[in-house]
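Troubleshooting: if your tokenizer reports a length mismatch, compare your output against this known-good record of 326 residues.
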Amino acid sequence: MVKNILVTGGSGFIGTNILSKLASTKLNIKSTYFNKKPNIISKNIEYLKVDLTDRSNCKQVYQDIDCVLMAAAVSSGAKIIESNPLIHLNDNILMNTIALEESYKQKVKKFIFISSNTVYPLTENSVIEEDARYDFYKSYHIVAWMKRFTEVMCDMYSTKLNQSMNTLIIRPGNLYGPHDKFDWEKSKVVPALIRKIIENDEQINVWGDGKDIKDFLYIDDFVDALFELILNYKNTDIFNIASGVPITINEIIDILKKILNKNNLRVNHDKTKPSMIPIRKINIRKITNKINWSPKIPMDEGLKKTIIWYKDHFSNKSPEDYENDN
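Known-good structure output:
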């Protein structure tokens, strides 16, 4: 039974949203942050400011914990990956290695690692958990190797030791929603599109041809699945958590233009810029069968909720100002 949980990356996108839900429980919660201050304040959350890449700072972090949710990560959008391909490698490998080692030493019962759908090969099929190999899409080769290497380490701790530690590997769809990054340097596709369309009345520039097929999942649906796995799932396993509904970037743009009443906005596609994985369909049958979970929030509703949150938080200042405050 989970009583004491550690959420690393408590001021990040996933960390903030899962803490918002966990705060309503009677769990004892510890959470780490580094630079950006946490958003969720609750009497049952203890925050620790710590550099998770520094082993000497981490020894106390993992003590007396039943479940670790490894949500801390160096993350970014395609723009930064293109200019600095190694940004996702070293610090993430260090954090993940130290987290697994210290969790094992402290006899943590369950370790949950947030991986990525970049570990799957380029294919037109709807990928299932067994499809992860070592044939990664070129633009995401480094981040995919980092995630896959950590997945292999999780498997070592779960299956290759006399005294094992249960690990759960989570491969999300493309998550979006409140508390996401909206600054130009770090934002991913949905927040970047929301901001472009809000701030421009005549035209916007979009990387690629807009025909990339993705799987987008609203963060509340993701948190609901994660919450169930944290509290009630006891086995070592791997799960896709996604919408299971493919959609193109151009279709998302059309939905956003309609929501924001900007149907006449012209879209210029810059095909010289690097594209994302051109097609990614994700099968969610396994998690639906194992924990009876399915997404509830359709894309148009999720985008409306995200736009409302964005306007509420950035009506008087830009996301860059927000990032600098923290």
